[in-house]
Amino acid sequence: MPMPTRYVRLRPVLLLLLALAITGCASIRNKFKDENKNEGLPVTELYDKAHGQMEKGSWSNARQTFGRLIAQYPYGPYTEQALIEQAYAEYKAGLHDDAISSIDRFIRTYPTHKNIAYLYYLRGLSNMQRNTVFLARAFKLDTSSRDLEAPHQAYNDFNLVITRYPNSRYTADARQRMVFLRNAFARAELNTGIYYLRRGAWVSAADRATYLLETYPQSEHQNDAVALLAEAYTRMGNTTLAADARRVLEQNDPQHPWLSGRKWPKGPGVVSKLNPFSGDLR
Length: 282
Hints:
Layout: H1 5-38, H2 43-55, H3 59-72, H4 77-92, H5 96-109, H6 116-130, H7 132-137, H8 149-164, H9 171-198, H10 202-215, H11 222-236, H12 239-252, H13 268-274
């Protein structure tokens, strides 16, 4: 008896689901198999195995092996080092939330450890990577769905490194990353102001420019903020404040594109002149 048409059509889908199920089961079996291989191994063998996996760039396997070491041998110098290296393996594997959890656990357990500066630095790196979407959008005119909590936490982590451990080997890099983040925060504020400018919200644009100048003084976008302020005041018809902003910009950045002397067009052209490094934002 011939098979109904609808069942014939379903057969490829069913076969695909069956293949996926078999693959998933195989992955689970392999995972338990690997864990069983680590079961009961001496602490030195587990550490050497995990360290070797890290040298090969096998971050996920190293993370699991370090995890087994920590579970089997919760105390001792190997455990302390395993906690540090497990956090690093998680960071390299892109498991930034797990890395931060491991780091926080270590800091709580060993607050005076000789490598504590490194842990704060690594937490900063992990927080910096947790929201790469923000770091991308900070350079575009997109004000939606921006979560600043992780990059601000990264800034605080790096600040801890340079204030508490000024002589550590991580201080110089932490300071550079703080400068980068600070400029990224300023740029995000600038783009928000441009967003308001494009939509005719002159007061909001001026407020955002003022906030940028007050919150992130000496950032690499301060002159752009002054240009935004001057344009917003010009659009509002406040000639006195617009002239003051223009004078400040002329003194600090006489080559800024806003000082071309031409009246800005409406729409995307305004953004291109004010924020020339941002590319085509249309």
